[in-house]
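User: Please predict structures.

Assistant: First:
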Amino acid sequence: MAGFFNRLRQGLSRTGGGLSAIFQGGGINDEFFEELEEALIMADVGMTTTEKLLDSLRDAITEDKLKERSEARERMISILADFMRPESGFLENADKAVILIVGVNGVGKTTSIGKIAAYYKARGKDVMMAAADTFRAAAAEQLAVWAERAGTPIVKHGEGADPAAVVFDAASSFKARGRDILLCDTAGRLHNKKNLMNELEKMRRVIDRELPGIPVEALMVLDATTGQNAIAQARAFGESAGLTGIILTKLDGTAKGGVAVAVKEELNIPVRFVGVGEGIEDMRPFDPEDYARALLEQ
């Protein structure tokens, strides 16, 4: 886990380098807040969330009579973590679950499924996959490669098949074999394509009907390098697909990292997983304290 945290810290160094420098030396004055405001906005935190963060920091500085910027950094880490912290743990007390993965094209849905499968498999869960992206050429084959790498079974149909039929067969197998986690891939879709959003709703109805009582998480994969555009995507999908969480990918690239704060604060959709590379081990459950520290401590 320490290695993963280091990868996260390195990946966010473009953000943290700007933010962490502000907390080094000097007193807490108007210049400090102006620099911090600019750095947070540049880090894709967004104007609205930045203002709320700064108000919270000002209150903490006054209440605790903080004098040094290093002290303010520790409080800021705590404030950031609080802003990003989910109201509940992911799949708390759930022995079985269905995780439906959605998002636009090209954000890494299929690879995210492979990595999440490997994560749970390593922790003793009996995982299976459903290749319900029947639209993109070779999508099922790509997912099958990840299934083999993760050592998990997969249910897939031919290209152009009804995605809901794939989900139905996967749910039947899930029940019959008593598995723990069903990961469902879906075709990349834009939120304004009504027929595709209806298709998602149909898949969800099949899951609810065939696996009653089993919790369903709808996680949207967001490419962190898209910045504030990721917020617009998540808002649209949240309205249409009933999102319960976010998978934030490509944090090892040119991502600025603050989008994780904005997604939770502006949309009340928590980040559940973060990815920092291409390897099968490069995705972990989101830890708000680790993430906040990685942003501010370089």
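Second:
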Amino acid sequence: MMTSRERVLAAVNHSEPDRVAVDMGSTPSSGISAIAYSNLVNYINANDKDVKIYDVVQQLAEPSNEIIEKFGVDVIDIGRTFNTNPEKWYDTVLANGDSAKYPSWFKPKKQSDGSYHVYSDDGDLIAKMPVGATFFDQTYFPYESGYPAEYSSLKKEMGKVLWQCMPHSPWDHSNEPDFWERLRANAIEARQNTDKALMVVCGCNLFEWGTFLRRIDNFLMDIMFPEEVMPLLDELIQIHMKTLENVCKYLGDVVDILRFGDDLGMNSGPFMAPETYRQVFKPYHSKLCEYVHKHSGMKTFLHSCGSIYKLLPDLIEAGYDIINPVQTTCADMEPERLKKEFGNDIVFWGGGANTKEILNKGTVEEVKTDVKKRLEIFAPGGGFVFNTIHNIMPDVPPQNVVAMFEAIDEFYR
């Protein structure tokens, strides 16, 4: 049998491993909600029932080592090597009433109606979670009224956007003076003490940062006039490249996969015409991928939701090795089509279980049938890492999560 790392590396190098490589929780787009996780650990009577909400925006749980081993997960996020002491967490309550833990730095303000607000250091309301909700919504858009004359305060404004102000690990430690040295030491220790493949989540979003700063409706109109958005993108790429230089310097010879993010698709198709993508965003994406490939041994992983079939040739040409979450429930994203047309050129990390209609609503047998059918399509020849279509959401019954992993085992018997 292959080790987990060998299994993942075989898959991402388009060689079929001994069995499909599996992910759950190595990125904030391949994980499990805190409520679903709480239901799961109670259902299986796990020894470790702590529900640590490491991604506070999306309310995602950090899977325990017990869960990782039980379900044969082959890849882990090096962010889990931080916040390992109990005092780094404090008790909170989930929307369904279950107990959980927040990172010690995260202190949302509970309102009289039971909702939660998050404020920036200078008092702006930047995020809300209504009563009964299971994630925080962005409420502050720095450039909602228009672009500034110059971008000297861009970093400050980015720091007030919830995705950066409420970061998941390891980036909640990025302001500490020894962060990069500690990140490297932790990654080396993880590589020595586990056979799992290692993932680092790096972000470097471009289209999405435009939507975070301007608000999505404004930015979608803006990109039709590239001269308006290019100055912002030029500033963003400079910031991203500095981060990327450090990531490659400190982790490039230790970590296996670097995860970028930029949601480019809707249910019906891309947010923009391929021609617009090529003109506005592809040159920047190409620069990011080129730098990683030139200065490290890491594979480049792009998280992009939605129907991106029409953009895949350009994303491949830009240098992305892996695509996630493979949202096969969207237009033009049929598994057979994707595998046939692009299976030799890009790795599909996801698409392994229908989280929209079957994993959450189906019977155990329907879940197993869905998973096995997808394995039959995606697994042959490698180029596939099993993961659900995006995160396992709060409404997914625990028995269906168990059934999903059982289906993988049954497929290889």
